[in-house]
């Protein structure tokens, strides 16, 4: 057996689990293998994004209608607050020239220009994801991209990875369902997907998930409808969004939250920071808190959409992170990708620039167009009253951690309960579409990989496995 190594020949003992402080995380900066993988992935292609390459976007605003002051001090979530925003939709796996109406997860990234700085919520049109540890992310994305030898997309690679990482079954079931190809960007939901923190003015922490429910209604395409549409228009989603806004048919989403007290995480019965799982609404109900609207198209696609740079590291007081391992890694990976893709000073581009006052000691770097504001001090700490200083009143409450530093495996191997619940919610027509979509996606897939997939489907539900078998004519 060949031993796996990194680029410098160092043997890799575990390529499945990142280093974390305890099984629930958070991650440790000393995990140089994770950082190497993520940093290398960010530099694999130029100049387009390695994922979410093709996108459409618009400006708008979010208005909060509920009193959330008990949960967060963030100004963006105070009742009556109206916050300007920029929302970029995207396909995930395809390149810049990919067709809009392909079966794929859709990105749903929102940049809120709040009074306290930019807050970026980088999500998808699904509440879950394929993996729960970012250590696997570069490998997963490789399976969605082209084979470096043939330069072709590979169903075999995708299903090989999915069946060897059964935590992906929940997201795969969503992707292969009737919702796997949204008809337009306007007719799909958006989710923050990760678990985040809310912090109130008493310095109490709550865990929160963000939901955006389309008020246009859900509309999806079958494989046949998508193929016919792509033959006529590869930019169908871009065209629909742009034209709708141009004629004043502004798309809207209901803003909803799930909020869980820090002491109540055990109510879920599983790791609340596991990105492959949803929080059941019966345990953590959805709260209606406001509305999001898109009402203005960009004037220059390249300047505003292609150069838009999002990162979950951009947060504001009252909103924080969680020990979600995927979120923790994205805090590094996203801004690192932007620095590589569009430069060190990408934050100075108009679409990325915050609309509140900024005071920083970061200077110079390529394409720095900012005016220099500091006087005597160009460093911190310093002795000058007119120079920016830290403000420790904004420190977050302690997050208590436990456990040894190790490459911890996930806390559970329940890969089937939530996919089963989703499958049981489907009507017969939706199930038939699921079976056909999976069968179509298994073209040219190795028989042993198909058999492995069927064993997983059997554990979700015998009806699931039998339906796929029938569609495969096995």
TrEMBL record:
Co-factor(s): heme
Keyword Heme: yes
A Pfam family that the UniProt record links to this protein: Catalase-rel
SMART domains: Catalase
Superkingdom: Bacteria
InterPro entries reported in the protein's UniProt record: Catalase (IPR018028), Catalase_3 (IPR040333), Catalase_clade1/3 (IPR024711), Catalase_core (IPR011614), Catalase_haem_BS (IPR002226), Catalase_immune_responsive (IPR010582), Catalase_sf (IPR020835)
Keyword annotations: Heme, Hydrogen peroxide, Iron, Metal-binding, Oxidoreductase, Peroxidase
Protein name: catalase
């Amino acid at each position: 057996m060949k031993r796996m190594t990194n680029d410098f020949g160092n043997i890799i003992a575990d390529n499945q689990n990142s280093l974390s402080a305890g099984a629930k995380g958070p991650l440790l900066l000393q995990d140089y293998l994770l950082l190497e993988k993520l940093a290398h992935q960010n530099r694999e292609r130029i100049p387009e994004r390695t994922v979410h390459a093709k996108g459409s976007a618009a400006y708008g605003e979010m208005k909060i209608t509920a009193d959330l002051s008990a949960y967060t001090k963030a100004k963006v979530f105070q009742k009556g607050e109206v916050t300007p925003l920029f929302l970029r939709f995207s396909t995930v796996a395809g390149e810049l020239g990919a067709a809009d109406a392909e079966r794929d997860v859709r990105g749903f990234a929102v940049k809120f220009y709040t009074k306290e700085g930019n807050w970026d919520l980088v999500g998808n049109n699904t509440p879950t994801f394929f993996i729960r540890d970012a250590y696997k992310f570069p490998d997963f994305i490789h399976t969605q991209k082209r084979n470096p030898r043939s330069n072709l997309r590979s169903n075999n690679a995708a299903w090989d990875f999915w069946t060897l990482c059964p935590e992906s079954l929940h997201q795969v079931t969503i992707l292969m369902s009737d919702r796997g190809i949204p008809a337009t960007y306007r007719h799909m939901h958006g989710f923050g997907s990760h678990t985040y923190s809310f912090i109130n003015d008493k310095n109490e922490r709550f865990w929160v998930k963000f939901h955006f429910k389309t008020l246009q209604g859900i509309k999806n395409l079958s494989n046949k409808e998508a193929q016919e549409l792509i033959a006529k228009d590869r930019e169908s989603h871009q065209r629909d969004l742009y034209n709708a806004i141009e004629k004043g048919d502004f798309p809207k989403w209901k803003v909803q939250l799930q909020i869980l007290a820090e002491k109540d995480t055990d109510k879920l019965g599983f790791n609340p920071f596991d990105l492959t799982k949803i929080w059941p609404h019966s345990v953590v109900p959805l709260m209606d808190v406001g509305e999001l609207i898109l009402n203005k198209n960009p004037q220059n696609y390249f300047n505003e959409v292609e150069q838009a740079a999002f990162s979950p590291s951009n947060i504001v007081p009252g909103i924080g992170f969680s020990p979600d391992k995927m979120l923790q890694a994205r805090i590094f990976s996203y801004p690192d990708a932007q620095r590589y893709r569009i430069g060190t000073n990408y934050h100075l581009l108009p679409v990325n620039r915050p609309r509140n006052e900024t005071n920083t000691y970061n200077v110079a770097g390529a394409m720095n167009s900012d005016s220099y504001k500091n006087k005597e001090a160009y460093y911190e700490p310093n002795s000058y009253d007119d120079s920016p200083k830290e403000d420790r009143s904004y420190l977050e409450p302690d997050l208590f951690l436990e456990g040894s530093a190790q490459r911890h495996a996930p806390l559970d191997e329940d890969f089937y309960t939530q996919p089963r619940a989703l499958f049981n919610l489907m009507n017969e027509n939706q199930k038939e579409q699921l079976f056909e979509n999976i069968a179509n996606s298994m073209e040219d897939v190795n028989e042993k990989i198909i058999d492995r997939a069927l064993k997983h489907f059997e554990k979700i539900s015998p009806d699931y496995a039998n339906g796929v078998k029938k569609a495969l004519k096995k």
